[in-house]
Design goal:
binds pyridoxal-5'-phosphate; alpha/beta; three-stranded antiparallel beta sheet; 13 helices; 16% strand; 397 residues; globular
Length: 397
């Protein structure tokens, strides 16, 4: 048997994130009758409360599923077999979404990137301008590409679609940005926003979301892709009275109610500011480490830096997976792995969810000690620089 690892495990992957005690305790309350008279109060509270996080006044549908389910729901409710969808392939998750689209009988048109930046609105506009027959029915963008730590400019993508007068829907994956990076479903003109419970919302995996627009609802009336479990219509009908058409994840919904309370107590702008500070401090540490010549940020565009995670790239000859294994073994900390073509090249530091300055500094200290032990050349003093960055940016309000 392995000896007990004392202290708390550092779950510094970019989701699932650590679940705060208050949320865990709410989830552990006795399971309730989802068709009983008392349930509508909880159902109504979370269906209304979650809208404030998406910054929408329009309906938000909640599925008992991981984020992948909400991807599928967004596609099957709005599109028909053979429809073209324009997808910015910004990384591994954008790739998986495009593969799903193909499997569902859609025709993805991919805008390729080097996986080191977000989507380019000008390239989206150019592709739409060429589509005179309006074969493209939706533009799909991952707001925060969790495999690369690069974000895409969603409101600029909306403007690009509007500027060329194209009627395509805008579908946006915010699975690793909702409730950690600034986002506004209504103001940014998004038609379907896709999200999951296990990252910024500080819940375990198991809930996923589609925030809708009037245009998306209209599209769902004509969409011909087969759908049953993911159908918005029975959901919206039952949700109107605080209920669900099939058994919802009742305990997770109770957890969501508590997580929403935590977010309101901190204040959403403060949540975003905290994530921005932690991301800046992490990049400050990486900048120092990079002086050894073997380390660099995966994201190359300063405007595209993610505030929920930092993907760190190692030079040829160094194994990111070996480094992560060593850090797990020695310091009981999980870091995110490199995905797809970034396998073994990149490790990812998650700094989203319920973390504070000292959690972050502990995580960065674990990385710096790991680099030393693994013999990865690096500039010394990354943690010092992160401390200075945090001090300069002031304590979280
Ligand atoms: C940006 C993004 N999209 C989609 C997914 C897939 O979500 P899930 O694993 O919850 O199905 C993830 C998972 O990490 C993600 O980060």
């Amino acid at each position: 048997m392995k000896p007990r690892a004392p202290g708390r495990h550092f779950l510094q992957i970019p989701g699932p994130t650590d679940v705060p005690g208050r949320v865990l305790r709410a989830i552990s309350e006795p399971t309730v009758d989802h068709r009983g008279p008392g349930f509508a109060e909880l159902g109504g509270a979370v269906l209304t409360g979650v809208k404030r996080v998406f910054k929408t006044t329009q309906p938000v549908v909640i599925f008992p599923a991981s984020g992948t389910g909400a991807w599928e729901a967004a596609l099957v409710n709005t599109l028909s077999p053979g429809d073209a969808v324009l997808m910015a392939r910004t990384g591994w998750f954008a790739t998986l979404w495009s593969e799903m689209a193909t499997r569902l009988g859609l025709q993805p048109i991919l805008i390729e990137t080097d996986w080191r930046r977000g989507a380019d609105p000008a390239r989206i506009a150019a592709a739409l301008a060429e589509d005179k027959a309006h074969r493209i029915r939706a533009v799909c963008v991952v707001h925060n590409e969790t495999s690369t730590g690069a974000k895409s400019p969603i409101s600029a993508v909306r403007r690009a679609i509007d500027d060329v007068g194209h009627p395509a829907l805008l579908l946006v994956d915010t699975i690793s940005s909702l409730a950690s990076m600034a986002y506004a479903h209504d103001a940014w003109g998004v038609d379907v926003t896709i999200a999951g419970s296990q990252k910024g919302l500080m819940l375990p995996p198991g809930l996923s979301f589609n925030a809708l627009s009037e245009k998306a609802l209209q599209a769902s009336r004509d969409a011909k892709l087969p759908r049953s479990y993911w159908d918005w219509k029975p959901m919206l009908e039952a949700n109107a009275s605080g209920y669900f058409p099939y058994t919802p994840a009742t305990n997770l919904l109770r957890g969501l109610q508590e997580a929403l309370a935590l977010i309101e107590e901190e204040g959403l702008p403060n949540v975003f500011a905290r994530h921005d500070r932690h991301a800046a401090a992490t990049r400050a540490a990486v900048e120092v480490w990079s002086q050894g010549g073997a380390i660099e940020l995966q994201c190359l565009e300063t405007t595209d830096y993610s505030s929920s995670l930092t993907a760190v790239r190692l030079a040829e000859g160094h194994s990111a997976d070996a480094l992560r294994a060593l850090i797990l073994e020695r310091f009981n900390m999980s870091l995110g792995n490199g995905l797809g073509r970034l396998k073994d090249r990149v490790f990812r530091i998650g700094h989203l969810g319920d973390i504070n300055d000292l959690t972050l500094l502990g995580a960065l200290a674990g990385v710096e000690m790991g680099l030393q032990l693994a013999g990865v050349p690096h500039g010394a003093g990354g943690v010092d620089r992160a401390m200075a960055s945090l001090a300069q940016a002031g304590a979280a309000p």
